[in-house]
Amino acid sequence: MGIAFLEGEYDLAYHVVKTFKCDRAPRVILKEVRRTIGRLISYFQPDTLVLERLFYIQQNGSPLLKKVYQELKVIGRKNRLKVIELAPNTIRKTIVDDGRATKLEVARSLAFQFPQLQGSLVEDRKKKMRQKYWFNMFDAVAAAVAYQKKRQRM
Fold this sequence. Notes:
It contains 6 helices and 4 strands, in the order E-E-H-E-H-H-E-H-H-H. The protein is α+β, with helices and mostly antiparallel strands. Helix 1 runs parallel beside helix 3 and helix 5 packs across helix 6.
């Protein structure tokens, strides 16, 4: 799971990929998600939780992913956060002005905007697993930045 926190307009305060062992029972994973996200909310004191909306196929293909997504919304509401869901194509359109942009194009744009992300930008297709791992974090940063940009336009 990619996690990112922005402070102010576009100050990237925190970015990480949190891995949860999928060989555990779903209730154990959900408990770990609650604990992890709860600690981060407590530390950073955000006012908004931005989630990348799941596609129908993701929800049906992974019941655990659907449960985690629903749990994140519950956690946000319990902590009195504004819970925002953005479609992936909306996020991409906001970041690189193309709703059909690839994850790599989005990652490149974000690494240009936030130089501290450049070390996580994996462009070598032979390192596909490592690339996929870091794309989770780039997705989280993209969602946060997209929400900030949309909020500014309002």
